[in-house]
Structure formats: C-alpha cells, structure tokens
Amino acid sequence: MTISKNDLHKIARLAYLEPETEEMEKLALEVNAIIDFVQQLQGLDTAEVHPLFHPLNLKQRLRDDEITEQNCIDELASIAPQFENDLYLVPKFVDVDTGQ
C-alpha cells in the first residue's frame, strides 16, 4: 500500500493544512516509508512472544506506611503571614456578590 500525493492532499485538506509542494513530496516519501515499516512489522511471527509491559522486570520498592500523628500547628502558624484559629488567613480574591 502506498499513499499518493493526491491522497496526501485530501488528508491535508481534511486537517486544514496547506503544505508546500516540495513538502508534500518529502511527506509522501516519509509516509510511505512508515507504511512499509508497519507492513514489515505485521509480517513478523509474534505467536510465541509474550506482551512486554515494562522493559525491566523490576518491582517498585516502597517503604511501609507508618502512621505518625504530629501537632505542627504552631510550626505552621510561625511561618504564615496571618494565622488565626488554626487557619491561614488570605486576602479575599472572589467577590461573593458578583462571582468575580
């Protein structure tokens, strides 16, 4: 199967592209090379080949979850410009009445 210049013009028009004439010639060669390569791949016998999900057969090593409870409110309050009742205070940036 080969793609002609007319086919490429139709595809380009459908994609709202306007490539130059010399670009179309180069593109036709590249597309046909890709199609030839795909046809070669389709001709390979992969009946005994198992799917490869990852190139390395490694498991991701994660540390065990360790629950820790810390009260760091004082530390957070010390670095906040404004902190009141265990909450950060920030400038109003949305007007509730207008939604802006």
From TrEMBL:
State one molecular function term (GO): transferase activity
Record-linked Pfam families = GatC
UniProt keyword list: ATP-binding, Ligase, Nucleotide-binding, Protein biosynthesis, Transferase
Task: Please state the Enzyme Commission number of this protein.
Answer: 6.3.5.-
The protein's annotated catalytic reaction(s) are: L-glutamyl-tRNA(Gln) + L-glutamine + ATP + H2O = L-glutaminyl-tRNA(Gln) + L-glutamate + ADP + phosphate + H(+); L-aspartyl-tRNA(Asn) + L-glutamine + ATP + H2O = L-asparaginyl-tRNA(Asn) + L-glutamate + ADP + phosphate + 2 H(+)
SUPFAM superfamilies linked to this entry: Glu-tRNAGln amidotransferase C subunit
Gene3D superfamilies given for it? Glu-tRNAGln amidotransferase C subunit, N-terminal domain
Q: Which residues form a coiled coil?
A: none
Q: Which GO terms describe its biological process?
A: glutaminyl-tRNAGln biosynthesis via transamidation; regulation of translational fidelity; translation
Q: What does this protein do?
A: Allows the formation of correctly charged Asn-tRNA(Asn) or Gln-tRNA(Gln) through the transamidation of misacylated Asp-tRNA(Asn) or Glu-tRNA(Gln) in organisms which lack either or both of asparaginyl-tRNA or glutaminyl-tRNA synthetases. The reaction takes place in the presence of glutamine and ATP through an activated phospho-Asp-tRNA(Asn) or phospho-Glu-tRNA(Gln).
Q: Which family does it belong to?
A: Belongs to the GatC family.
What does the subunit comment say? Heterotrimer of A, B and C subunits.
Query: Which HAMAP family does the record match to this protein?
Result: GatC (MF_00122)
Q: What is this protein called?
A: Aspartyl/glutamyl-tRNA(Asn/Gln) amidotransferase subunit C
